[in-house]
Here is the input.
Amino acid sequence: MTLEEIINHRRSVRHYKDLPIDSEIVKHCIELATLAPNSSNMQLWEFYHITNPEILKKLSVACLNQKAATTAQQMVVFVTRQDLYRKRAKIMIELETQNVLKNSPKEKHEKRIKNWKMYYGKVMPFLYARFSGILGIVRKIIVNIVGIFRTITYQVSESDMRVVVHKTCALAAQTFMLAMANENYDTCPMEGFDSRKVKSILELPFGAEINMIVSCGIRDERGVWGDRMRIPFKEVYQRI
Here is the structure.
């Protein structure tokens, strides 16, 4: 299918046929999801591919026994990992250092490497660190002062950065669902779930958060609830 056909084909399917799907294809779609754009390439996400029938049953209960969950052949749980910011920032320093050495003129190596070490070694840890909201208040005070003299991003509170991490993870989830549609597999993104139960089932650490759970399968004729409806384009489109 063309991209336009894939987008039109994808629907949120709430009832699947009792037919197996290829876990390797689903895994490949998750690999494609890792190519989604994300903030500062920090990739503060993890993807849990659920194929075990017992775990699927437990997750169905945690998903409030929605048909999209109880009839799913597999599930993918999209998880944010803001708590891994130091580890991911360190990886990015190493990556960008190699990029500079490979792609930049030699006379600019020192300055550019220094800039990347500052960005990922100081700025990113400062932005993503959390401490009961206190660090967010400190960041807000700093940017409001700096903002008097220059253009700056003001959304730096701890809740703001949590939103950034979840937006990034959602981009990966959407990429996954489009990749699945390209394979003629269907999905349904679910936000109705008991996050505490899900974290317990998957044995996730305290710093992890559930972004969404995507059920997977092959659509049953009952799986799509009517024609697609969207607000008229002229009401949501603004050309400036």
Summary: The first helix runs from residue 3 to 9. The longest strand covers residues 209-217. The chain has a mean pLDDT of 97.
